[in-house]
């Protein structure tokens, strides 16, 4: 059986104490920088790898982070996970994924069955309208950071994109392109970010004194199929009630709207403008290409994980809410001179 390098081997090689090596690897203040550099150099030379199980027994840490997430198959969440993984890797933590498939029932079952003794903290993008199933964890002071899909009333740290201003910017862009009858195909009513994007849309219309019609606001799921069905519903109206632009809550729904308009032989851009929210790569591959609000997905994941690790390492870390801005990306679907069939 091969010999596993331990801190004892590093200490023996440098003729220092085991406790000095341990403190140097933990970057404590009472070890000189010169000694830290020597210890790290020897650790690399000997191919030392930390024994997280032993470390966990010593300091009560498992070096595991749980992530509860709606999906892993779409661009946004896969990019968020990449950001989380990068931050976790930098501090030698492992991540464990729990996927809800956007099911409230599954999310509640996952939280009920979680073995919190095997986790140091949780990152959560919820699909639920309230967070009652997390209250027991918070009461036990288990670190939790919500990201992307958050619950406003939860007393926990949160990292979000700027949903309100992104939606406001998207709607104003449509208005400035000459669209005056703008519909919104939204997400589920009880989702916090759905409400914020809806409010941004409404406030932009009010700011420019444009009509707000209840029949132009449709709530449903987040899928491409939902976007297609919502758009077909919008088109099933008398001509004087037809919108001439659509703001979709995300790019998947914007893609569905694009397919619905193509089926009806409606020219995208010239007849009806479309803008989404996410900057999924598919939005730049369709013809015509789809305007969108780019979300800082990697940064959301990275900052969420960094914040969670702060809560794990220092229990007294204050609750924080971090909001990251999006970016308007203008493409063909909101240009009236472009003919898309």
Please, how many helices? 12
What's the CATH H-level superfamily name of the largest domain? Response regulator
Please identify the oligomeric state.
single chain
Q: Any idea what the CATH architecture of the largest domain is?
A: 3-Layer(aba) Sandwich
* Number of domains as seen in the coordinates: 3
Count the beta strands.
12
**Can you list the strand order of the major beta sheet?**
2-1-3-4-5-11
Distance between the termini: 67 Å
CATH class of the largest domain: Alpha Beta
| Poorly predicted sequence stretches spanning 5 or more consecutive residues | none
- C-alpha-based Rg, rounded: 25 Å
List the secondary-structure elements in sequence, H or E: HHHHEHEHEHEEHEHEHEHEEHEE
Kindly estimate the percentage of residues that lie in beta strands according to DSSP.
Answer: 5-15%
Helical proportion?
Answer: 40-55%
| CATH topology tier name of the largest domain | Rossmann fold
The global form is: elongated
On the 0 to 100 scale, the average pLDDT is 90
Q: Which structural class matches the secondary elements?
A: alpha/beta
**Main sheet?**
6 strands, parallel
């Amino acid at each position: 059986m091969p010999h596993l390098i331990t801190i004892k081997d590093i200490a023996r090689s440098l003729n220092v104490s085991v406790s000095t090596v341990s403190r140097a690897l933990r970057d404590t203040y009472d070890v000189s920088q010169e000694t830290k550099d020597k210890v790290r150099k020897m650790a690399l030379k000997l191919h030392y790898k930390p024994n997280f199980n032993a470390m966990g027994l010593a300091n009560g840490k498992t070096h595991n982070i749980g992530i509860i997430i709606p999906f892993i198959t779409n661009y946004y969440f896969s990019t968020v996970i990449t950001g989380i993984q990068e931050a976790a890797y930098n501090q030698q933590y492992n991540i464990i994924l729990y996927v809800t498939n956007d099911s409230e029932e599954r999310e509640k079952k996952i939280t009920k069955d979680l073995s919190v003794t095997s986790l140091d903290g949780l990152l959560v993008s919820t699909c639920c309208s309230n967070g009652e199933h997390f209250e027991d964890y918070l009461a036990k002071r288990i670190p939790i950071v919500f990201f992307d899909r958050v619950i406003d009333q939860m007393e926990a740290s949160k990292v979000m994109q700027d949903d309100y201003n992104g939606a406001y910017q998207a709607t104003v862009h449509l208005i400035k392109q000459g669209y005056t009858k703008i519909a919104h195909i939204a997400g589920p009513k009880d989702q916090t970010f759905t409400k914020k994007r809806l409010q941004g849309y409404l406030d932009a219309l009010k700011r420019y004194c444009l009509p707000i019609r209840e029949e132009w606001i449709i709530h449903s799921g987040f899928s491409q199929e939902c976007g297609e069905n919502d758009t077909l519903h919008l088109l099933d109206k008398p001509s004087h009630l037809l919108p001439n632009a659509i703001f979709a809550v995300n790019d998947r729904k914007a893609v569905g709207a694009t397919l619905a308009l193509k089926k009806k032989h409606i020219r995208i851009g010239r007849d009806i403008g479309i803008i989404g929210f996410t900057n999924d790569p598919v939005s730049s591959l369709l013809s015509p290409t789809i305007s969108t609000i780019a979300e800082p997905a990697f940064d959301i994941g990275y900052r969420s994980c960094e914040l969670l690790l702060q809560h794990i390492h220092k229990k007294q870390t204050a609750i924080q809410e971090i909001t990251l801005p999006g970016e308007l990306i203008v493409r063909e679907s909101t240009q009236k001179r472009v003919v898309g069939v």
